[in-house]
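Sharing in case it's useful to others searching the archive later.

Someone asked me privately for the predicted structure of sulfate adenylyltransferase, so I'm posting the question and my answer publicly. Question first, with the sequence:
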Amino acid sequence: MQDIKETIDRDLLWLATAGSVDNGKSTLIGRLLHDCHAIYQDQLSSLEKISFKKGLSEVDLSLLTDGLSAEREQGITIDVAYRYFNTDRRRIIIADVPGHEQYTRNMVTGCSNADAVLILMDAQKGLTTQSKRHLFIASMMKIPNILIVVNKMDAVDYRQDVFAKIKQDCLSYISRLNIKEVDFIPVSAIKGDMVVFRGEAMPWYKDTTIIEYLNKIKVSLSNNEDSLRLPIQLTVRGEGEPRCYTGKMESGVLKKGDEVLILPSKIKTAIKAIFIGKKKLEMASAGQSVSVMLVDEVDVGRGDLIVRQSELPEKANEIEAMLCWMDNNPLEMGRSYLIKQMNKTCRVDISNVSYRVNIDNLYHESAASLRLNEIGRVFVKTNNELLFDAYEDNKYTGSFILIDEINKSTVAAGIILN
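And my answer, the predicted structure tokens:
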């Protein structure tokens, strides 16, 4: 029981991983899991048998993460998969993002909750267009900790000048992005150098291993210091009991007795009680899913937002946003889509594309539309007013997805600009 409590008490790090195809990302994640003792003996035995059948002299650690049989056969990773392991400092959830360019849309999904992103590059290839795309998305999504890992150092004889050249190329590109800080680590995932253990192949590198980096970076434990944002998901009423309104505390702190404002109706009321399940609380904070009882019997429904009078969000039916197009069919001007922002859904038109970003050189190019994996700045007009914050102020209230009204597929993800 003590071991379980110690594990729970460790803070949690959400780590997204991204890299071009064949950069060895699956092997790197497998190495992390293997060297952190996050693999059961029967898993390891199975990997040894499969590796032997493939004629390999060493265990193929990439098989740990290439979970689908189809992707194992093709040797590629297709979907975003989540892996879990612990260090002596914290619990870590890895979002394993596919490397193929056509799956770049999955990086937006994998990075949506990330505290850090590990971007993998091949020492033999250096900074590629796909690597630039990953850096741009990490910058756009305001991920606070960015680690560039230069893998396959064994393939270039662990040469310091190769690592230095890739680092310089990356820094030159990053200087034009909104990235304040980035770290670099040279590794050999297949040999294990600088992943969990330092190894002896790169005495010229004096900084941290990957696991040391993951243990030392700061993780924002909550959004408690941000403005109160409690979007209502459901209205619940038991027999003979007052109404309760449920939702997830996206930011801020809420206490019993607090005076609040219901938007968009602008009804003023106060918090009578707060519950998690049947447990009554004096206070709720960001990240908790709660039920609240109000002092007054008021009309509150799904999509409404509980805030403080002094911390109002923006309100408009026209916004500017950065949009990552995720559908095989291109954006059609004048076509009606659905926007889902918080718990609210309404019709929306994209009235104009200001520009499309050329990922290779970061130039802003004129565009009449956006195609799969393209990113651009757009004007969005909604049928109903949206309540929102700029993405840089609040990631939840400042982000949205677009949905095809006919087949209900998600076609784009967007972040709201100032």
